[in-house]
Amino acid sequence: MGAPKQKWTAEEELALKAGVRKHGAGKWRTILKDPEFSGTLCLRSNVDLKDKWRNLSVTANGWGSREKARIAMKRSQQIVKHDNSPKAVSTSIEDSDDEILDIKPIAVSSENIHVTGQKRSFSRIDNLILEAITNLKEPTGSNKTTIAMYIEDQYWPPPDFTQLLSAKLKTLTASGRLIKVKRRYRIAPTSAFLKGKPSNISIYEGRQREPSGSVVDDFTPLLRSQVDVELARMRNMTAQEAAAAAAQAVAEAEAAMAQAEEAAKEAEAAEADAEAAQAFAEAALLTIKNRKTADLIVRA
DNA sequence: ATAGGGTTATCT
DNA sequence: AGATAACCCTAT
User: Can you give the distance from the CA of residue A55 to the C1' of nucleotide B6 in angstroms?
Assistant: First the structure.
């Protein structure tokens, strides 16, 4: 009987992206037969993969460019027959649909970041992170793995990109640009000029829906967001301070570095409530890195 | 088997 | 009502 609509889960989406990364876009059958992904994608057909990839491309690409205008135009043209484009500025230029360029600075960013980035305390990677979170459009925010995958997908990955990303995420969170809730990052409501509402996000994971009956007020969302900011920041601060203190005690040995990395990975793999563990690991990692090679971290 | 266009279901 | 995502159909 009717299969209503089987929405794609995050795992399936991740598997699809990984599959495309491995085998390339278009090799849907190959991806589907790969034992790595056949487990999570067993309920999907090659056509499903193709369609999903198309949807992902559409949503991830030109939101803020002219792709939206194109789609909007096409939508309107379903009924309207005439195309009145008086200026018709650049529609004919053909879409060189690559905004995935000129990120190269981040590889050598360790040394030449100070050249241009004096006014803003924003380096290239900061913008990348914000862009990733924005384009991912995940209602509950995006976790580090997803953000890393997005950036690695679109751009090219430096060797120790994961560590750099961790450091940057932490910095952005501490400065209030990002909000971290349950291992997921959102863009702070300070820049809530995006569109729509700040969106009250349920702290709980899973796909439960919120009762949409509580739309009584237009002022509460802002307050709620503010509270969330304070809460998240206070939480992190406390955890980080404690973790930093503990980390300094063990930071003497080089082995601690590997240990911290292991802890970070495990904390992330386990979806459990290991927030403290991860905070500890990150703090320890940062501390050690600061002590050993301070120039590895991009300063702005 | 894949790409593209078209249709329906779901959410705001 | 509009927009988006899943689904369906067909030509190559």
Answer: 15
